[in-house]
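Note to self: keep these together.
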Amino acid sequence: MWFKPWALWVDETVNEALPTSAPTTEAVVPTASGATSPAPVGPTTVAEGVFISHEHDTSGTAKVVRLADGTHTLRIEELDTSNGPDLRVVLSDAAVVEGKAGWHVFDDGRHVTLAKLKGNKGDQNYALPADVDWSQYTSLSIWCDRFDVSFGAAALTRV
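Structure:
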C-alpha cells in the first residue's frame, strides 16, 4: 500500500445511529389492569471513557454498549482526530498514559484490532465479536498501524 500524504487532509465523517436489536424481557412492569408484563430492556452503557490526545489532537467518547439482545457494541461518539494511513480501532489492556510515554503501548500486551476506523470524525459503531471478552481490555486506541502509534486513546471504566 502506498502512503498518500494528501489524504491526511481529507476528513471522513461518519454519523451512525446506535444499533438496535430485538428487545429482551428482563424486567417486569405492572399494566393498567394490575397484571404484570415483561418490560423491554434497551441499550445500556456498561463502560465508557473520554479520549485523550497522543500523536494527534483527538477528542470524543468511547462506550461499550450492551444491546437488548445481549450482544455488545463499541460506540465512538463525537470523534474528532486527524485522518491518517491505516487507522485502526484497537482494544488493549494497556494503561492510557498522557504524553509521548503513551503513544506506542497499545500493541505491547493483550490487544485486539476490531476494524479499520470508519472515519476520523463523527459517531460510529463496531460490533464486538462474541469470542472477544471486552471486559479483559481497559482501553481503546485509535491506532495508526502504518507507523505503530496511537493518535488518541480512552480508558474504559465500567459504569
